[in-house]
Write a structure and sequence with these properties.
The complex is a heterodimer of chains A (about 475) and B (about 400). With about 475 residues, chain A is of the alpha/beta class. Chain A has twelve helices and twelve strands. Helix content of chain A is about 50%, strand content about 15%. Chain A has a ten-stranded mixed beta sheet, sandwiched between helices. In chain A, a hairpin with a 2-residue loop joins strand 9 and strand 10. In chain A, helix 9 (about 315-335) crosses helix 12. Chain A starts with a helix and ends in a 20-residue tail after the last helix. Chain B is built from 22 helices and no strands. Chain B has helices spanning about 1-10, 25-35, 40-90, 100-105, 105-125, 130-140, 140-150, 155-165, 175-180, 185-195, 200-210, 220-230, 235-240, 245-260, 270-275, 280-295, 300-310, 315-330, 335-345, 350-360, 365-370, 370-380. In chain B, helix 3 (about 40-90) packs across helix 5 (about 105-125), helix 10 packs parallel to helix 12 (about 220-230) and helix 14 packs parallel to helix 16 (about 280-295). The chains are: A alpha/beta (about 475), B mainly alpha (about 400). At the A-B interface, helix 1, helix 5, helix 7, helix 11 and helix 12 of A face helix 1, helix 2, helix 3, helix 8 and helix 10 of B.
Chain lengths: ~475, ~400
């Protein structure tokens, strides 16, 4: 016999787990439905709105594309070319070599004929010591900062403090931007120049895609299940997640892979933080906090169509490292900004967005892991009946399946980058498989992230990179 | 939260009452209930079945939609080739026979021709624009656009205005202001339609439309600029009335003015000059950028000279930079001397950088005498030019 108090404890835990699931899944469901509405609205606007004049407009804000690079020799040249290829006319590209120990600087130097500018930077760059700043003899609007290693946030800050462009765009060095990407991401700033503080675009998985120059020519779904599962995750996160959150003014995440910000306001809050490994999330939360304290109207927007292509980890070890880091960063951000949770003076950010974010992305995986252990145990011990156990499974698997498939609805009704039905069929298989093993594994990885956080681990963890696949004719 | 779960559980008839806490026997009891004697369990099984069926339908819809879109894409691609051929064949003729082309089209072909035509209106300029307009009229787009602007649907009105803009069909200002809603997107599109045939009446109507809003989008600024750029006198007159209270729209109007022609006759500049004393640094900065363009008017230079020392003390770095740029643009010995003098009191490195870059382009003797140390510090950077223009502050 099991002691009664233990039975009560286990049963209560099981009920608690189920309750958390219900709340989180209802939240996800609402966001997903709003995303679909917003997607439809965005497509209609795109179809009917008159077009901007793209050349010779004196009113377009200047944008500095800042590319922090640490040991990115494999991908950096393609990445810089994709930034230079952007159709947006008012731009500067700033590569920040963050003390790379590989050939990153030499590769860029020879590819773009760099020449060092004599003398020190014209003003303090708010970063680790700068060895030199280069400009290109062959390409206008390209600067390269070579500095001591200080981490991604330090590298981004160097670019932010050097530029005087009105906006800056952070781009990861292992990513390629669609030629129209910057234009589309800038749209919220063009539509509401006095309100927009930040905007982000969609990140898609590049592993199985083929590229010509810096532009994608063939979009494919990876046959590697680990990569394919991440393709579903990315679709869901962007088309079914951020789009809805943006519409509800609850957006807390603008991916560091591709985000556009007002330079002055980011400088006002001190730039990217060195205190967290997910500096992109933390910055957006801090911006919300800062502007709400100023009591100014503002927007943080998500634009679904601009696409940046990125390489995702293609092996379990790298993926585990990346996800542990993300989870650790989330906990760090939540901890740094715990003071605004539940406080009405921070509006929906303090009362809804951050609490739900912490609940769904932070507490959710921990509770989920606990649930995977406690509910079957309680069922086997007869502490909950089969109905409860099945309800648990329905909520986890059933709702999980619906949410996974929702992202595909957005894909086929929205921008349709995966054009062939066979690709959609493969993604459907991944969407189903995601809920049988992968999701549970991620929950356990999050638990390891929690351990890392509690042990105060601060390392990034290296993820291997491959060159982007070229088209056959290239 | 617990009560929510209790509600869910009670609705599905699930009991969370613990069964006898013996591992093996309890498991047997659970299995016994599982095989179907318990009513609540049948509800759960029914729920599983419903969810399963819904998932299958869901997957079917996703795959079906994907297949339909691929089919449509292939059909359009095949049709597009022949439509495009017919379109360009006629377009190269001195007098295109659009009527016979349009009469021969199916509905799908007509839609594709409209898409091709829309793209062509953005790409083809010059003598052929008249032919494109005529094709638009032959396709009935003008009537459709007019009906759309008069409709109750926001998106239809926007589409109608877009068609007017694409084909360069002008519209009566009174009709426009009566038909469009208060929505800013529509108002800005209407300003752009007015800019197709700019005259004093349309300019006044466009400025009135712009002033309905607290702030314009960049598109709205582009539209207004197109409307007033050749003759900004109505905009100057509006500013002289000094009745614009919203700083955001005021700064935007000033920016439009800064990029417009300056041959406005003797229209007074009082409205702009007053803005130098505005509370908002964005407005002060925008006013400087307007005055930079009017350095050829002695009355403007005299008024600015009277307050220049106060302007050098402006607390906003961005405004001071705009003042230095104004002097740089005036570009005569007097302005350069003032610029060199400003370098003596300026402490901000970004502002000093601007002065250095401006002096680099001016008379060497003035620059060398006044700013030797400044030149040493910034000279290597003066020609780089990629750092970007000075920032505007957010949010005002």
């Amino acid at each position: 016999m099991i002691h009664p108090w233990l039975a009560v404890l286990v049963k209560s835990s099981a009920v608690f787990v189920l309750a958390v699931y219900v709340v989180i899944n209802l939240y996800y469901l609402v966001v997903h439905v709003v995303s679909l509405i917003e997607l439809r609205h965005g497509l209609r606007e795109r179809e009917n709105n008159p077009v901007y004049e793209r050349v010779d407009s004196p009113f377009l804000p200047g944008i500095a594309i800042i590319i922090p690079a640490f040991n990115e020799a494999e991908t950096i040249v393609s990445n810089v070319r994709s930034a230079l290829d952007q159709t947006y006319p008012e731009k500067t590209v700033i590569v920040v070599n963050d003390g790379s120990t590989d050939e990153t600087l030499e590769t860029v130097r020879s590819a773009f004929s760099l020449e060092e500018i004599d003398g020190s930077p014209p003003w303090d760059l708010n970063c680790e010591p700068v060895h030199g700043i280069y400009h290109s003899e062959t390409v206008s609007d390209l600067l390269v900062i070579d500095k001591e290693n200080g981490g991604k946030s330090d590298a981004l800050n160097a670019g932010i403090w050097l530029t005087d462009q009105e906006l800056f765009c952070s781009v990861d060095a292992d990513s390629l931007i669609d030629r129209e990407g910057l234009w589309q991401t800038a749209m919220p700033f063009l539509a509401n120049p006095h309100r927009t503080a930040a905007s982000g675009g969609t990140v898609r998985v590049a592993n199985a895609c083929r590229f010509e120059g810096s532009q994608v020519t063939d979009v494919s779904v990876s046959r590697n299940p680990l990569v394919g599962l991440q393709e579903i995750e990315y679709l869901r996160a962007f088309y079914s997640g951020r789009l809805g959150l943006s519409h509800l003014n609850l957006l807390l995440v603008i991916s560091g892979t591709f985000g556009l910000f007002r330079t002055d306001i980011v400088r006002d809050v001190g730039g990217y933080s060195h205190e967290t490994v997910t500096e992109d999330v933390e910055l957006v939360v801090r911006l919300h906090r800062h502007i709400r304290e100023l009591d100014k109207p503002y927007d943080v927007s998500f634009v679904p169509e601009p696409v940046v292509w990125t390489q995702v980890p293609d092996n379990i070890a790298d993926l585990s490292r990346q996800r542990r880091r993300w989870f650790r960063g989330l906990l760090e951000t939540a901890s740094m900004h715990r003071g605004i949770i539940g406080r009405p003076e921070y509006g929906v950010i303090g009362t809804i967005a951050l609490p739900l974010y912490v609940l769904s992305e932070g507490i959710g995986p921990i509770v989920e892991t606990y649930g995977y252990i406690i509910v079957p145990l309680a069922f086997l011990a007869g502490m909950v009946d089969v109905g409860f156990f099945l309800t648990f499974l329905i909520l986890i698997i059933g709702l999980g399946l619906f949410l996974s498939l929702f992202s595909l609805v957005s894909e086929v009704w929205g921008y349709r980058r995966y054009t062939r039905p066979s690709q959609i069929a493969l993604l459907t298989v991944y969407a189903i498989l995601e809920n049988f093993g992968y999701r549970q594994w991620k929950a356990f990885v999050a638990l390891r992230g929690l351990v890392d956080y509690l042990r105060n681990r601060t390392t990034w963890g290296r993820i291997s990179r491959n060159p982007f696949q070229k088209t056959d004719s290239d | 939260m617990i009560s929510l779960v209790s509600l869910v559980l009670s609705l599905s008839g699930i009991s969370v009452t613990p069964l006898p806490l013996v591992w093996s026997s309890s498991y047997q009891v659970q299995l016994g209930r599982f095989v179907g004697t318990d009513a609540p369990l049948s509800y759960i099984l029914m729920a599983i079945t419903i969810i399963g069926v819904l998932l299958i339908i869901f997957v079917g819809i996703i795959l079906g939609k994907s297949w339909v879109e691929l089919h449509r894409h292939r059909r359009d691609r095949a049709v597009r080739r022949s439509v495009r051929e017919g379109f360009y064949e006629q377009l190269t003729e001195p007098n295109p026979a659009w009527e016979s082309l349009v009469a021969s089209l199916s509905d799908v072909e007509r839609d594709i021709l409209i898409e091709e035509l829309s793209q062509s209106t953005q790409l083809i300029k010059g003598s052929k624009t008249g032919d494109l307009k005529r094709l638009g009229e032959t396709l009935g787009l003008r009537d459709e656009a007019q009906a759309a602007v008069e409709s109750n649907s926001h998106y239809r009105r926007l589409w109608g205005l877009k068609i007017f803009i694409q084909f360069g069909w002008s519209a009566d200002p009174e009709w426009l202001s009566e038909t469009i809603s208060k929505d800013r997107d529509e108002g800005e599109a209407a300003i752009r339609v007015l800019a197709i045939s700019p005259d004093r009446v349309t300019r006044l109507a466009g400025i009135d439309l712009a002033l309905q809003y607290d702030a314009l989008s960049v598109y709205g600024m582009q539209a207004l600029h197109r409307l007033v750029r050749a003759d900004p006198a109505p905009l100057l007159e509006q500013l002289n009335r000094q009745d614009i209270t919203e700083s955001a729209i005021l700064a935007q109007l000033l920016r439009v003015l800064a990029f417009s022609d300056t041959f406005t006759g003797d229209v007074p500049m009082d409205g702009v000059l007053e803005c130098l004393d505005h509370d908002s640094p964005t407005v002060r900065r925008a006013a400087c950028s307007v005055l930079a363009e009017y350095g050829w008017r002695p009355d403007v230079r005299d008024r600015v000279d009277l307050i220049l020392s106060d302007l050098f003390d402006d607390p906003s770095r961005e405004v001071r930079i705009a003042i230095y740029e104004m002097l740089g643009q005036w570009d005569d010995a007097a302005a350069q001397a003032k610029l060199a003098k400003a370098a003596e009191s300026e402490t901000n490195s970004r502002a000093l950088f601007t002065i250095a870059a401006l002096l680099e382009k001016t008379d060497q003797s003035i620059a060398q005498n006044a700013t030797a140390s400044l030149r040493d510090e910034f000279e290597p950077w003066a020609d780089v030019g990629e750092i970007g223009p000075p920032l505007t502050k957010f949010p005002e």
